[in-house]
Design a protein that fits this description.
Radius of gyration: 25 Å
Distance between the termini: 23 Å
Helix content: 40-55%
Strand content: 5-15%
Number of strands: 4
Oligomer: single chain
Strand order of the largest sheet: 2-3-1-4
Order of helices and strands: HEHEHHHHEHE
Shape: rod-shaped
Number of helices: 7
């Protein structure tokens, strides 16, 4: 019997605590292999291959930076063209109103400026920052040990395959130190 949204209301997910990073990596690979897609891993240090093991492969920040850079490039060039050719046209020494080589430095600067700003805003938005509260901190062992010496895998209740009993049983067969429910 599958649980409905109302059965899971108030539950963020089920979290397993591991002692070694290799255990977390192996558990994440098994969970992804079992069909779980909405999960997150927490570690006090970087673990090579962990992002791929939980299915995190797509990075949208580079696309946001590209779009921001292109917008800065087009915007800077258009602004300079408008100023020189439309708003304040001055014929200086018989030169044409639109002399694009003189636009390059400002166009480049606008490209870099908007790309940098869009990368910061995009990174903050995609990481859902600032986030003053996250449900995993409701679990006492996570709050005490996550940044020191323990490794955690949380399968979220929003996962299509999530079932409270089956997910708990699945996590328990991975030999964790602890399996606990994380309340919202």
């Amino acid at each position: 019997m599958s649980e409905t949204f109302w059965d899971r209301h108030g539950l963020h997910g089920i979290m397993a605590r591991f002692e070694e990073p290799e255990q977390l990596l192996e558990a994440a690979e098994k969970a992804y292999g079992a069909g779980y897609r909405k999960m997150d891993a927490y570690s006090p240090m970087p673990i090579e291959g962990l992002a791929e093991a939980i299915g995190f492969t797509r990075h949208w920040v580079s696309l946001v930076v590209l779009v921001g850079g292109l917008a800065g490039c087009v915007g800077g060039f258009t602004l300079l063209w408008w100023i020189a050719a439309v708003a304040y046209p001055h014929n200086v020494g018989g030169r044409p109103f639109v002399s694009w080589p003189m636009y390059i430095p400002i166009t480049f600067e606008c490209t870099v400026l908007l790309a940098a700003l869009s990368s910061v805003v995009g990174m903050l938005a995609m990481n859902k920052l600032p986030m003053p509260y996250h449900p995993v901190f409701n679990l006492q062992s996570f709050a005490e040990r996550a940044s020191i010496d323990r490794f955690f895998l949380c399968i979220e209740a929003d996962d299509p395959k999530f079932d409270r009993l089956q997910t708990r049983a699945f996590l328990e067969q991975l030999n964790p130190e602890e399996v606990a429910e994380v309340e919202k």
